[in-house]
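This section describes the prediction task in plain terms. A model, or a person checking by hand, is given the sequence of a single protein chain and must write out its three-dimensional structure as a string of tokens. No templates, partner chains or ligands are provided. The sample shown here is typical of the held-out split.
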Amino acid sequence: MISDRIFITDKSKNHAKTIINNLKNEKIILIYGGSGTQKTETADCLQELLYQKRKQSVVLSLDDFYLTHPTIRNENRKKLGIESVGISEIDWEELKRICVDFKNKKQIRIQRVHKYAEIVEHLTLNILEIDYLIIEGLFAGYLKKDNFGDYAIYLEGTPYNTFEFRQMRGKENENDSFRKKIVRKEYNVVCQLKRLADLILAFEGE
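The expected answer:
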């Protein structure tokens, strides 16, 4: 998502090194886990390591594929209730279409959402120049369920031990009780997807 803050840490770098050392012939990489587990940062570091090996990659964020724009998402969730938070909020058909086009070496059409403006950019990429497709986000592992991902990485971390990092990224207000409920609900959904992971990276303190 455009304008979303990221903070590269040693944890992000180490996660990326572990992932690249375990890669074989997988081309679609899924990075998922609870809020604050450094998914975006890990994907960024992985992309850099692949580039150093002369491999081109594209990173897609699940945040760009929500069915509601971030400027109205919280309001929409309050209207629908906490049970509306989860997998059903994502445009999975669009993501699956991108995965199929990537596998078939067709051009892929992707979108980027502006966090602080009601704007969505659409880009068309020449797939022949891309070696890896990296999809990161809370529920990205869900794509593995229907075999739309080759290698799924689960980043562990509870809402409690990732709170500080989420604050750094401007995602948390400790006085926002509804936000706390959202994080807990998302975490519960993510935990159910853990079984789909090919690689699980444990949470460790900095």
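For orientation: The two ends are 26 Å apart (CA to CA).
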